[in-house]
Amino acid sequence: MDKLIIEGGVRLKGSVRISGSKNAALPILAATILTDEVCVIRNVPNLRDVHLMLRILRTLGAQAEFKKGVVTACSKRLKSYTAPYNLVSKMRASFCVLGPLLARFNKAKVSLPGGCIIGVRPVDLHIKGLKRLNADITVSGGYVHARSDELKGGHIYLGGEFGSSVLATANVLMAAVRAKGTTIIENAACEPEVVDLANFLNKMGAEIEGAGTPAIEIKGVKALKGVEHKVIPDRIEAGTFMTAGAITGGNIVITGIIHKHLSALIDKLEEIGVILERTDSSLRIKAGRNLKPANITTLPYPGFPTDMQAQFMSLLSIIPGVSVITEKIYPDRFMHVAELNRMGAHIQKEGPHAIIAGVKYLSGAPVMASDLRASAALVVAALAAGGKTEVSRVYHIDRGYENIEKKLEALGAKILRIKEN
Ligand code: UD1
Q1: Closest C-alpha residue for ligand 1 atom 20
Q2: 132-170 b/e (C-beta count within 10 Å ≥ 16 → b)
Q3: Average of per-residue pLDDT across 153-168
Q4: pTM beyond 0.85, yes or no
């Protein structure tokens, strides 16, 4: 297992280009199942999760190759409708092959993804949505078995205890595009990744309106065609670099971004006192002099993203005063608290809240990554900490950040990957 060794205390400087969005690319790759024709997807990040999705597509019988950020996929010879446990259990997003497989074969067998370190993560909304499209769904032996004589459009309310669901919206969307008649999804997720998926499906010939709002209308079509598509930039990678720039008192420019996807993050950083300057597709981040504490509540888009909660906690941990973070999407997503405290932070978890008493400085320590965004938070903290931090289990970070150490190194960070078997 690789480790990252980071010597903190360097102010980051320079410019960094943001990669394609992991969370947009994964459902789009799953959507290639919906056509016999070749799809070419550009700006796909070179990540473990992406390669896992490609493996799943190949296991189903598709051809899928990745070359320099471009995936060429063809599902003409798809032969299997089963996504097995050994692959689905490794990545929750692989569950979003359920909708397209059902649309393609009128049946699908997909392993339950299981829980993960950030919480229970049920799939009831996926199942409820697909049932409303006239699918029979049973769960047995750890698998979801879906079957339908004919998928039919329906009226679906897709909200749960914690609001809308990104991947449930994606799953229902991908089944509904080939269902007979019209489907309305209410309380659909509004995340930009859902919009990117809908844009991809519309290029393929689907008739989807309202993506990006809580009400999506889908008129089913008989067939979809192969198309080319460029994946949107990764707003969470962008946000992670924004916090890295701010915590090191640096002066960096992030390029290749879509500003409006970053509004909640920009607003919070400005409240904290970070100086942000925008041009058309870039954003300069300069740390101000007197940073102020802030309260953050994670919410579905356009609210503050749960995937940026941990990285902001690192930043707030060295801002004088008391900050409170409330996690409304995954109330248990606080595995990074103990690790940040090992670096000298003063953070107390109280139910779904983290109370952060800002300290003057963090100090380097051996720490352990527990999940993707928590590991990003440890790297962000390490960049500002005095001395050396050793982040182990960095395979988590490789799931979601393309070339993170190279990109940080180019900004001046002292960071080194140690390969371990
Ligand atoms: C996606 C993102 C993930 C992000 C999350 C929330 C991908 C590949 N992953 O995950 O990075 O953290 O959105 O923005 O896009 N829920 C249910 N029942 C369900 C489904 C979800 O109760 O059937 C709950 C979840 O437990 C959670 C909330 O709904 O509390 C939102 O989860 P959801 O949007 O579904 O997350 P994912 O789509 O899995």
Answers
A1: 123
A2: bbbbebeeeeebbbbebeebbbbebebbeebbbbbbbbb
A3: 95
A4: yes
Look up residue 43 and give its two tokens. 């700006």
Name the token pair of 135: 């699918």
Q: How far is the CA of 271 from the centre of ligand 1 (A)?
A: 27
- Three-state DSSP at 260 gives helix
Query: Residue 330 CA: which ligand 1 atom is closest?
Result: 30
Percentage above 70 pLDDT, the chain: 98
**pLDDT by residue (tens digit) across 359-417?**
999 999 999 988 899 999 999 999 999 999 999 988 889 999 999 999 999 999 999 99
Two structure tokens written together for 276: 């942000």
Contacts of 100 (CB under 8 A, 6+ apart): 30, 31, 33, 34, 174, 175
Which residue is listed with tokens 């489907």? Answer: 183
Which of 21, 44, 137, 329 is the best mutation target for the ligand 1 pocket, counting ligand atoms within 8 Å of the beta carbon and taking the most?
Answer: 329
Specify the DSSP element, H or E, that contains 276.
Answer: strand 275-278
* CA–CA gap between residue 74 and residue 319 (Å, rounded): 50
Active-site residue numbers? 116
Pocket test for ligand 1, best of 26, 96, 121, 234 (most atoms within 8 A of CB): 121
List the domains of the chain with CATH numbers.
2-18+233-419 (3.65.10.10), 22-230 (3.65.10.10)
**Residues 93-124: tens digit of each pLDDT:** 999 999 999 999 999 999 998 656 666 678 99
The closest-lying atom of ligand 1 relative to the alpha carbon of residue 236 is: 11
